[in-house]
From TrEMBL:
Keywords: ATP-binding, Kinase, Lipid biosynthesis, Lipid metabolism, Magnesium, Metal-binding, Nucleotide-binding, Phospholipid biosynthesis, Phospholipid metabolism, Transferase. This is Diacylglycerol kinase. Transmembrane segments: none annotated. SUPFAM superfamilies: NAD kinase/diacylglycerol kinase-like. Its cofactor is Mg(2+). It comes from the Bacteria.
Length: 296
């Protein structure tokens, strides 16, 4: 493998932590003998074009510096190739890095681990989800949680995570079940009223909310968590348990496992890795061993 590798940096991740994380990560990689080139990009589209060019040009690895959004962007360049992905988690959520057991907000440690993995050619192949050619690593969200995202993204004030707390309160006030049709592996069809449906390749979203707590990145299957019809009171009781993953045994929650999931519902936008995918209906498939990740 070539010693020339590419740092793929989001300088705005985590309110500027991405920019600060790049330097110690690069220093650790250079100390290990790697030649490091940095890719920024004027916007997401330009950055992805540059990342794809680096992969096509034979870079030894693409190292995403930022949060889950940056990791998701990097996946679009490396998934399905032999180019390893490294993660320097410096965002707000960092759920993909957490699922992989990587350091969070310790860029020097992350850089050293990536260097150790690449020098020893010890890489882990993990599954990814794919929807219409777009890859995702953690959770595809739809329903109540995606509507919170929709509302929060429309708000200009306040800034930061607090606006999503306010968006959640507003969506709670408007809570109603949505009629879903869920098709698993092209056969089993379920028509239900649901508060939300989450399709998990990884176990968590939103910075540690373990909505699909049993999901395994290497089993070739999604965990599909369905929160059925429930009242505001029930949802408020169940919600705190999501951080521990203990919500899965609540009577209103069911979990299914499938390699392919079709979701149909009106007026619902899907998000994956926190990024908008588009409106339902959509079909997600789990692609085994779709990306090689630098983990010693």
């Amino acid at each position: 493998m070539t010693s020339e590798i590419t740092l793929f940096v989001n300088p705005t991740a985590g309110r500027g932590r991405g920019a600060h994380a790049a330097q110690p990560a690069a220093s650790a990689l250079r100390a290990a003998g790697f030649s490091v080139r940095t890719v920024l990009g004027e916007n997401a589209e330009d950055a992805l074009t540059r990342a794809r060019a680096a992969v096509e040009g034979g870079t030894g690895a693409l190292i995403a510096v930022g949060g889950d959004g940056m990791a998701n962007l990097a996946l679009q360049a490396v998934a399905g190739t032999r180019t390893p992905l490294g993660l320097v988690a410096a965002g707000t959520g960092n759920d993909f890095a957490r699922a992989l057991g990587l350091p969070v907000r310790d860029p020097a440690a992350a850089g050293r681990l990536i260097a150790e993995s690449l020098k020893g050619a010890r890489l882990r192949e993990v599954d990814l989800g794919r929807v219409n050619g777009t890859w995702f690593a953690t959770v595809l969200a739809s329903g109540f949680d995606s509507r919170v995202n929709d509302r929060g993204n429309r708000m200009r004030w306040p800034v930061g995570r607090f606006k999503y707390d306010l968006a959640m309160l507003a969506e709670l006030a408007a809570l109603r079940p949505l009629p879903y049709r869920i098709t698993l592996d092209g056969g089993e069809v379920r028509e239900i009223g649901a508060t939300l449906v989450a399709v998990g390749n990884g176990s968590s979203y939103g910075g540690g909310m373990r909505i699909c707590a049993g999901a395994d990145l290497e089993d070739g299957l999604f965990d599909v968590t369905v929160v059925g019809e429930c009242s505001r009171t029930t949802l408020l009781k169940v919600f705190p348990r999501v951080y521990r993953g203990t919500h899965l045994d609540h009577p209103v929650v069911t979990v299914h496992r499938a390699a392919k999931v079709e979701l149909v519902a009106e007026g619902v936008t899907a998000y994956a890795d926190g990024e908008p995918l588009g409106p339902l209906p959509l079909t997600a498939e789990c692609v085994p061993a779709a990306v090689r990740v630098a983990i010693p």
